[in-house]
Amino acid sequence: MLNPKMQEALNQQINAELFSSYLYLSMSAYFESQSLPGMANWMRVQAQEELMHAMKFYGFINERDGRVALAAVEGPRTEWSSPLEVFEEAYKHELKISGLINRLVKLSHEESDFATHSFLQWFVNEQVEEEAAAKLIIDRLRLVGDNGVAMFMLDNELARRTPMPAGGAAAEAAG
Ligand code: FEO
Fold this sequence. Notes:
- The chain is 78% helix and 0% strand.
- By secondary structure, it is mainly α.
- It contains 6 helices and no strands.
- The longest helix has 31 residues, at 114-144.
- The protein binds MU-OXO-diiron (FEO).
- MU-OXO-diiron is lined by residues 17, 20, 50, 53, 94, 97, 130.
């Protein structure tokens, strides 16, 4: 059974993950408008992963006999000035999400809720990957600068990111 304080904090994290999904989908739409289909693909896959993160929290609250309470999701930004600006914002956003996960870990410890503490470790590790992935693309974009051919090649590379298999995502969400 979840205590009310922990439950409220986990519900807030569902909202944060849904907002992340919405933000990355908006970034994907921006890249579509800029004729950068590879980056649009990368962000669309990222949006799906964030939805999976939200569903992991959703599943966990229910499993602990808690009550999921969904709140309004804030509207994301829709315009950026360059691919670099988009990925810089994505990176900044991931740092913020890491901070939220760390706060949840701290709360679970304070509340001696060791089941939640254990559940959150997956997210602690995931955030390391999320930050590194965004940072790597920022570094690449800085190298590319305004070289059109290099931008075309990077876009082609990001087109190769594939969504997690449906079974895998469902298993992750349930787990
Ligand atoms: Fe769900 Fe990108 O953190």
